[in-house]
Amino acid sequence: MNKQHRLAYQAIKEVSQDNHGAVTTLLRTIGISRQAYYKGLNRTETTWELQDKYLKERTQYWFDENLQGIGAGNLLTNLNQDKAVTFPVTLKMVRRVMRELGIRCQVRMKKHSRVKQQEQYILDNVLDQNFEVSAPNEVWLSDSTELSYGINGESKMRLSGVLDLYGRRLLSYNLSPTETSAAEIQVFQRAFTAVGNVHPLVHTDRGSAYTSGAFNNFLNQFKVKRSMSRPGTPYDNSPMERWWNEFKLRWMERNPRAKTYQELVILVEEGIEYFNHQNRSAQRNGLTPDEYWSEAI
User: Which residue in 33, 114, 131, 205 is deepest, having the highest Cβ count within 10 Å?
Assistant: First the structure.
């Protein structure tokens, strides 16, 4: 029995209550015999139908839990980690359920405003777009992005962060009015305080805060290697750029705008907590960044 028939039978049952003769009239209208109606109405759902119903419930739950910002792949990852789902689930099943539920992940908008500049060979681009690492604290990426708050978003702050390339775990962050060397020193000081005695390759863009003497003198005490993106080549730092994009699209834009600075601080803290401790990905074997990072440690 298909879904349309089940819905029709249920509708007839509800409409015909306390209405003598309504069942006969409605069945005649839709062309179904009384025998088929009562057989279908009292039919027990099959195992497949029960599993399908539950799969839809759990798919909707994980989609909402992730602020409606993940696609079929990450939904499958969450469902496979869901102890309440006791039957095998495939990507094909998830995609079908998403279609039937009418849900879809919001796709990141491509930016077309950048003008590709002539490629240059820069000696200090040590990372050279090699984004594959085998352990934590091999490569740290850093950048800052603008966030707005206030009734109409009239106030601006810069959010700086240090991202471990292994598992894409945000080690530290800092909010400041502008991107300055002092702000970047502070966010790296927090990262080293949290992690301890490590000597990663530190990759940044060529912003003035990262090229300043104060910032680089600060990093020298930790005996790190330095790497910088080539001018006009944002892809050189693409994992960090992608992290900001996901953070703003899936968190900041899906929550009410902070009206005050204090509300912005709380919103940012909760968002980073979500991405580090709840956001699962197939690229991390179904683990969150914190689980993936801790497993290696």
Answer: 205
